[in-house]
């Protein structure tokens, strides 16, 4: 259910004064309290139902005959801690984009297993990322595309940016004119590992893969690590070809 606070945030964004009000210390304090509580609840859900949600996602991918691998923080936890990272608030998996029809098949397979779709991100009418929720666990699916060089792949991340526009509907929020970052990885294939007593797939060059995301010290815990603080980021030139849909519960 959309909270009153989220509705106010959406309204202020559309009025293009949200960035100014964020500087207000009272609003900032309220916003941080809300975020901290929400993040704490999501972390608890990951550690309680994360493995169950991953197993169900694995079944869904198997049903549509598509491969996937543990990605981002979930991969980092599997390699570094043999479990979920203590401060991780979601689960990440990667898969290759093989068409919007296959993405739709995945959605149906996920919903059949109790997942609720909450978010999707598009560019050039192609699915780039989507989020499902199961028992409070946010599971992000990142779609990868081939890069220009051998063993190079890309995924994409959306940010609000200065051009974004919000449109409110009864069942969703539509965000258009987003800023997009292209994230490049070296990917040589996959291999299977044991993760919390179950078999899951990860990139076979996991050390190189994780260094590309988190740097050479990725085996050192850093709860304050921030992707947006990276010095080198591949932000694409703005084009009016993006949209994100946030589904209301």
Task: Write a compact overview of the structure shown.
The chain has helices spanning 4-14, 18-21, 25-63, 72-80, 100-112, 206-214, and strands at residues 69-70, 91-96, 116-123, 126-134, 137-146, 152-159, 165-168, 172-176, 179-186, 190-195, 198-203, 234-235, 242-247.
Largest sheet: 11 strands, mixed
Structural class: alpha+beta
Integer-rounded radius of gyration: 18 Å
| Helix percent band | 25-40%
Span between termini: 5 Å
Task: Enumerate how many helices there are, as a single number.
Answer: 6
What does the overall shape look like? globular
Write down the secondary-structure element order.
HHHEHEHEEEEEEEEEHEE
The low-confidence runs, each spanning 5 or more residues with pLDDT under 50, are: 1-9, 30-34
Mean pLDDT: 86
Count of β-strands: 13
Strand proportion, as a percent range, falls in 25-35%
Can you describe what's shown?
There is one protein chain. The protein is of the alpha+beta class and 249 residues long. It is built from six helices and 13 strands. The chain has helices spanning 4-14, 18-21, 25-63, 72-80, 100-112, 206-214; strands at 69-70, 91-96, 116-123, 126-134, 137-146, 152-159, 165-168, 172-176, 179-186, 190-195, 198-203, 234-235, 242-247. Strands 1, 2, 3, 4, 5, 6, 7, 8, 9, 12 and 13 form an eleven-stranded mixed sheet that branches. Strands 10-11 form a two-stranded antiparallel sheet. A hairpin with a 2-residue loop joins β10 (190-195) and β11.
């Amino acid at each position: 259910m959309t909270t009153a606070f989220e509705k106010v945030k959406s309204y202020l964004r559309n009025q293009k004064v949200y960035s100014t009000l964020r500087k207000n210390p009272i609003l900032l304090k309220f916003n941080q309290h809300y975020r901290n509580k929400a993040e704490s609840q999501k972390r608890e859900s990951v550690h309680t139902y994360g493995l169950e949600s991953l197993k169900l996602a694995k079944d869904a991918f198997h049903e549509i005959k598509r491969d996937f691998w543990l990605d981002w923080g979930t991969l980092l936890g599997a390699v570094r801690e043999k479990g979920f990272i203590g401060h991780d608030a979601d689960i990440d998996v990667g898969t290759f984009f093989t068409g919007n029809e296959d993405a739709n098949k995945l959605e149906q397979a996920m919903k059949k297993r109790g997942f609720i779709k909450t978010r999707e991100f598009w560019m050039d009418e192609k699915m780039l990322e989507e989020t499902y929720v199961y028992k409070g666990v946010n599971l992000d699916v990142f779609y990868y595309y081939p890069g220009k060089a051998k063993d190079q792949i890309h995924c994409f991340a959306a940010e609000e940016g200065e051009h974004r526009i919000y449109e409110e509907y009864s069942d969703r929020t539509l965000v258009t004119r987003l800023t997009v970052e292209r994230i490049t990885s070296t990917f040589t294939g996959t291999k299977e590992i044991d993760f919390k007593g179950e078999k899951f797939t990860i990139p076979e060059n996991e050390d190189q893969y994780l260094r590309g995301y988190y740097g050479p010290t990725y085996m050192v815990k850093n709860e304050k690590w921030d992707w947006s603080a990276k010095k080198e980021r591949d932000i694409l030139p703005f084009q009016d070809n993006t949209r994100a849909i946030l589904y209301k519960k």
